[in-house]
Amino acid sequence: MRNSKSRNITAIAIVGSLAIAAAVYALWPAHPEPAQIGLRSADSSAGTLPLSFPAPTFDFSDQDDNSVNTQSLHGKVTIVDFIFTHCGNTCPKMTTQRVELQKLIMDPRITFLSISVDPARDDKATRKSYASANHVDEARWRFVCPPDMETALRIAQQMKIAAAGSHSHGDSPILHSDRFVLIDSAARIRGAYPITDVGAMQRLQRDANALASQIASVKK
Question: Residues in the chain with pLDDT < 70?
Fold first, then answer.
């Protein structure tokens, strides 16, 4: 008798559970939309930087009349900018930031290269005095001068940063980029970093150091 009552109670419980489950199922959306998953962007680092494209071919003289060319970029990390010494707006800011970067980035495998976009006025003496006046560390910095403005701007455009120009007649400005370009030890463009973005400047330091750490040894 007791076994019969127990079986009845169990059956009632099962039926009740099934009824509750059926009610919940009826209220559940027939075709629920899948949850949208937001993937976190990878931090910029040597491992995640794109292998963009080779640096353009060039061969220019620096402030000491030494040849600086694409081949000489191999074996070290290079931070490039485009400036001209008579600039009164963006270039002084680029210079200030470059001097700061030289203090923050101490690895001798990381060098700096400035390319003049005003070759007519940026002769060797002018570029040399510019370094002294702005306290630029010449031990890891070269300031090269293309043969003409068109060549300078072509190199900038080949690096795929905003660069255009006009012959500086009258008040016509010379336009150029406010970005540093990062080149790895295989002379490949790895990224551009606007000087107006504090986060970008921090990433530039991190990315340059990470790329330098991949170089087997410092060239003597």
Answer: 1-51, 162-176, 217-220
Asked whether the beta carbons of 52 and 190 are under 8 A apart, the reply is yes
Please tell me the distance from the alpha carbon of residue 65 to that of residue 90, in angstroms, as a whole number. 26
Q: Please report, rounded to a whole number, the percentage of residues in the chain having pLDDT higher than 90.
A: 57
Over the stretch 42-83, which tens digit does the pLDDT of each residue have? 344 444 566 678 999 999 999 999 999 999 999 999 999 999
Q: Is 170 left (phi over 0), alpha (psi -120 to 50) or beta?
A: left
**Pairing of β 53-54 and β 141-144:** unpaired
How many angstroms separate the CA atoms of 186 and 77, rounded?
8
Interacting residues of 169 by C-beta distance below 8 A, sequence separation 6+ = none
C-beta separation of 182 from 207 below 8 A = yes
Cα 27 from Cα 46, distance rounded (Å): 51
Q: Is 135 left (phi over 0), alpha (psi -120 to 50) or beta?
A: left
Whether 81 and 180 have beta carbons less than 8 Å apart is answered as yes
Query: pLDDT tens, 143-156?
Result: 999 999 889 888 98
